[in-house]
Amino acid sequence: MRKDDGFPPPESGSSVSPDRPWFTRRSTLVVGVAALAPACLAGWVLTQVLSGSGSDGQQQPRPLPASHSALAPGQRDAKPGSTPSGSPSTDASSPAAAPVPAPAKGPLAGKTVVVDPGHNTGNFKHTDEINRQVDIGTGRKECDTTGTTTNSGYMEAEFTYDVSLRLRAALEAQGAKVILTHQQDRPWGPCITERARIGNEADADAVVSVHADGVSAGSRGFHVILPAKVKGGGADTAKIVEPSRELGERIAGNFARTTGSAPANYLGSGTGLVVRDDLGGLNLSTRPKVFIECGNMRDAKDAAQLTSPEWRQKAAQGIADGIVGFLGG
Ligand code: ZN
Question: ∠ CA 254-264-269 to the nearest 5 degrees?
């Protein structure tokens, strides 16, 4: 059973244009690898090179990415003796010298990112509420969906919330203001309309909706969903299509690097990018926004990764690194 994001999956014709594969564009390392391999395999080869252990779920634990230490330089600045002039904040024992909260530092200072943990663990118990139809501009759709689970019962909504918390921490470490669309503090939802509205009203510089897929075993890998150009009712994505694509490409490339996962082998033609016009959360967004399906919960190898806290940290870091790249870090 699959009650995920309004599938069936999109037709293959909606995938990324083949002349602009993400893995040939952004980083010099990616370009270098792509130049050495047939283009159709470059993304996969890249993950092999960078992970050093293939893409199965039994990779040895690796140290967390170093960028979690991004705040350290700013914090070190406030330590005694760290600056020649001596800082008023060095005497932390004196209330009078209590430091004024410093403006956020880091490449995302002044930026707002909205993180949307897909679904809600309570949705399974509130099917009447979430099945209520809402207006997504181009049509009507369920307010929210239950999401999928692994075969052992780990809920997609648990996964998305865990990754979202890790993503929030990683982004805040880079100086961003981060808003979650919910914090498992409500019995169900929010509706997809509200999820979109939160990003819009926050005037977010980037919005990411975190998901995992639920398709047949053997289908593996991640993909990033980009908004199609749609117009109808309250939906008009003309202004976000291009920036969302750049955001998605950045996230896909970095996600592959940090997790060692390959782009999905069941859609997107191996690019890890898919365009959809049927998701209210994208259609109603006025801010650059993508969804990421981090893996397939119904595949045992992917599930082994999705249920690993260490892997989820890598996933969050890859998404964060993509956002940093997109926002000019
Ligand atoms: Zn989902």
Answer: 105
Half-sphere exposure of 289 (CA within 13 A, CB side): 32
CA of 23 to the centre of ligand 1 (A): 25
Same domain, 213 and 135: yes
- Residues forming the active site: 293
pLDDT in tens, 284-309: 999 999 999 999 999 999 999 999 99
Residues 46 and 151 in one domain: no
pLDDT of residue 6: 40
Cα angle, residue 314 at apex, residues 311 and 205 outer, rounded to 5°: 135
In a domain, 172, yes or no: yes
Ligand 1 center from residue 297 Cα (angstroms) = 10
Q: What's the domain range around 36?
A: 20-50
Q: Which of 1-15, 34-48, 53-67, 235-249 has the lowest mean pLDDT?
A: 53-67
CB 326 within 8 A of CB 206: yes
What gap in Å lies between CA 66 and CA 45, rounded to an integer?
24
What distance in angstroms lies between residue 215's CA and the mean position of ligand 1's atoms? 11
Per residue in 103-134, pLDDT (tens digit) is 678 999 999 999 999 999 999 999 999 999 99
210 and 295 fall within a common domain:
yes
